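User: Sequence recovery, please. Input:
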């Protein structure tokens, strides 16, 4: 999953490197490295985003669990190249086709989270931003599935976790953007002895690709 994230980020950078070759004068170079479009100091934007995600549970093997992703947020600009954002986000995590030692069947884990994040964004070029921050996720729903049977395992998992997001955003124009984000949680999933006996110290990791729409309110 980390390789996928790095590959897409490099593609973003390659796109903007090629675009930068068109800007030869000092004026053009400075303009190219401004913050996207007309946004400036103390501007406030609201945005929404939606897309898909792929998640795995560390140390368990198995396949990627695909699912929806989306949310909304507010962004405040402090410089032409730096902003802070607060975001509320729904994510579908877990893993698919996981085989545990001593069990004869594969398991799917479907975990739904609501996450609030504080993000710091730096605009590397006029239309590409990189960001990181800190998030807090609340577990909404947790199920394990095998051979058509579903079990509620929410009580066996921690009801919350901190997440460390790292991402890149490509602004297509003044309103639309494409966002790629990787989330990793430092906290193990399992809470009870039963959960630890199956999942051990496994953690969530998650990659989301979304399309966003933003508009200025102040």
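Assistant: Recovered sequence (218 residues):
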């Amino acid at each position: 999953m980390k390789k996928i994230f790095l590959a897409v980020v490099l593609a973003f950078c390659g796109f903007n490197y090629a675009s930068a070759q068109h800007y030869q004068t000092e004026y053009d170079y400075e303009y190219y490295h401004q913050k996207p479009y007309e946004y400036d100091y103390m501007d406030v934007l609201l945005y929404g985003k939606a897309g898909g995600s792929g998640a795995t549970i560390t140390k368990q093997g198995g396949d990627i669990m695909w699912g929806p992703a989306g949310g909304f947020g507010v962004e405040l600009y402090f410089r032409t190249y730096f902003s802070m954002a607060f975001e509320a986000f729904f994510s579908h995590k877990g893993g698919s086709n996981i085989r545990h030692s001593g069990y004869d069947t594969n398991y799917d884990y479907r975990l739904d989270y609501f996450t609030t994040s504080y993000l710091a964004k730096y605009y590397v070029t006029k239309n590409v931003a990189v960001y990181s921050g800190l998030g807090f996720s609340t577990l909404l729903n947790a199920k394990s599935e095998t051979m058509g049977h579903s079990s509620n395992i929410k009580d066996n998992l921690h009801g919350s976790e901190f997440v460390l997001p790292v991402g890149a955003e490509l602004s297509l124009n003044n309103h639309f953007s494409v966002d790629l984000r990787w989330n990793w949680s430092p906290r193990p999933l399992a809470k009870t002895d039963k959960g630890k006996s199956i999942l051990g110290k496994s953690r969530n990791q998650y990659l989301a690709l979304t399309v966003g729409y933003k508009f200025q309110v102040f």
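The first helix runs from residue 2 to 20.
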